[in-house]
Specification:
Number of helices: 15
Largest sheet: 6 strands, mixed
CATH superfamily of the largest domain: 2-enoyl-CoA Hydratase, Chain A, domain 1
CATH architecture of the largest domain: Alpha-Beta Complex
CATH class of the largest domain: Alpha Beta
Strand content: 15-25%
Number of strands: 15
CATH topology of the largest domain: 2-enoyl-CoA Hydratase, Chain A, domain 1
Strand order of the largest sheet: 8-9-10-11-12-15
Number of domains: 3
Length: about 475
């Protein structure tokens, strides 16, 4: 980037600060909305005469995406346009599942995890089986099920419609942009939707799953699970939260069951998921903080809750602080910045900050990990698995719905670089002031949560971090 554009970025950032001091946050929000709130205007099509015309209208509207989303490279934009043309050619014959998969695959050409078909659309758009899968270090397992399939709880999934879960995870990369870790965390949406698998493999049934599973003592068996109509299925929950012991939104008590529903005591990492932060002292001057979301929690603020847990400046300092960012899909990182900035001052001089991440750590949760590492420096250890995105990514956009199918697509307009710091004109301007670059968030201690521990309410990653 040229020096001139760096100076322009600095000047624009200075203008924002000046306006903030003069007129307050409202002006800043207006400036940022003008810059990053790009979206598509309403479609304005006439009512479609039939399904084929409805699909063509959706594809014509979809074709406009690259005019507002800034994450597409020229090559990616060309691939996107080619895929949309191919979809339009199939408008008269495409199935419902083919429509969702086709749109998802075209959008994923951006290679950016924030430019995507909203994952919640998958559950709302396609029928799904009344069981839920979750990835662990030792494979894919059934962690939630309705009463008629409760015997599958805790079973390891060896094959779905004759194909290994690992292979379906690789296939999911076509539909979810970003990293392999991110695609893997969302691949269960694909594997729980029989019509989607049938679209990819004509031999797979379109109304049920044919599973091969292994029980807890090593026995294998085949089982079929019939799909539930989409209007009767609980909505998608945030990635990773299927591992919770409690019922999720839309799950009816006495109908849905979980592996850990009878556990006498849950590990700290699964407690109080309805709050923004769960805090507890684990002993030996160790403070555990689980950020379930990076967002203020009414009526108080997230920063205030974290500061209260960290304790006053004159209190004894912590020997270890565990900052758990697993199952956290993001939020509003300025809300947590003040507390994370002060976190290192609450560590003992020889203390450690242990940041826990996995593939469900995403967006503002990744930024929170980067900020924590920046301020705590060499006292930081990243424990767990790679987070669910790169440190350089596009975000900060809006969303649009295709006019007829109502498939929701998230748009990205602002660039982030938490590996090197972001001082370019294309960067999300507020990040100019953070100017944080931490190189990498790859784990210093690589460890995944084993299902063999999970079923006994033991958190493999947390235990390793405390070792």
């Amino acid at each position: 980037m040229s020096l001139g554009s760096r100076e322009l970025a600095a000047a624009l950032a200075a203008v924002i600060v000046t306006f903030a001091a003069w007129k307050g946050e409202a002006v800043v929000e207006k400036v940022l909305d003008l810059r990053y709130g790009r979206t598509l205007p309403k479609a304005g099509f006439a009512p479609p005469r039939d399904a084929a015309e409805a699909n063509r209208q959706d594809f014509d509207y979809l074709a406009r995406l690259t005019s507002v989303d800034r994450s597409f490279s020229p090559l990616a934009a060309a691939a996107f346009e080619r895929k949309v043309r191919q979809l339009r050619e199939r408008a008269a014959s495409i199935s419902r599942a083919g429509l969702l998969l086709g749109v998802s695959e075209a959008v994923a050409e951006a290679g950016n995890a924030h430019t995507t078909v909203d994952p919640a659309t998958w559950r709302a758009f396609l029928d799904s089986v009344p069981i839920r899968f979750a990835w662990f270090a030792d494979g894919l397992y059934v962690v939630r099920a309705t009463s008629e399939h409760v015997d599958l709880l805790g079973a390891r999934v060896l094959a779905v419609d004759g194909t290994s879960p690992a292979r379906w995870s690789e296939e999911a990369r076509r539909f979810f942009g970003g990293t392999p870790e991110h695609a893997r965390s969302l691949s269960t949406l694909l594997m729980e939707a029989p019509a989607a698998l049938h679209e990819l493999d004509a031999h797979a049934p379109d109304d049920r799953l044919a599973l091969r599973v292994e029980d807890g003592v090593g026995g294998e068996r085949a089982v079929e699970v019939t799909a539930t109509p989409r209007r009767q299925a609980p909505p998608m929950t945030k990635a990773g939260r299927v591992a919770l012991a409690e019922l999720l939104p839309g799950e009816q008590a006495g109908v849905w069951h979980t592996v850990l529903e009878s556990a006498p005591r849950l590990p700290p990492s699964l407690r109080e998921p309805r709050k923004s932060v769960h805090a507890e002292v684990l002993g030996d001057r160790t403070l555990y903080l689980h950020l379930w979301q990076v967002r203020d929690e009414a009526p108080g603020s997230l920063a205030a809750a974290l500061r209260a847990a960290l304790g006053p400046a004159d209190a004894p300092r912590w020997r270890r602080i565990v900052l758990d960012l697993r199952f956290n899909s993001g939020g509003d990182y300025p809300a947590v910045y003040p507390a994370i900035r002060d976190l290192a001052s609450r560590l003992a001089p020889d203390g450690r900050l242990l940041v826990l991440t996995d593939a469900t750590t995403f967006s503002a949760a990744i930024i929170t990990a980067a900020l924590a590492k920046h301020f705590a420096g060499e006292r930081t250890r990243i424990v767990g698995e790679k987070p669910g995105d790169r440190l350089a990514f596009w975000a900060e956009g809006t969303s649009v719905d295709l006019p007829n199918s109502k498939i929701a697509i998230d748009i990205s307009t602002g660039y982030h670089d938490w590996a090197k710091g972001c001082r370019e004109l294309r960067c999300y301007w507020p990040n100019y002031f953070y100017d944080v670059g931490v190189g990498t968030l790859d784990p210093d201690i690589a460890v995944g949560w084993r299902f063999s521990d999970y079923r006994n309410a033991v958190d493999t990653v947390l235990e390793r971090a405390l070792d």
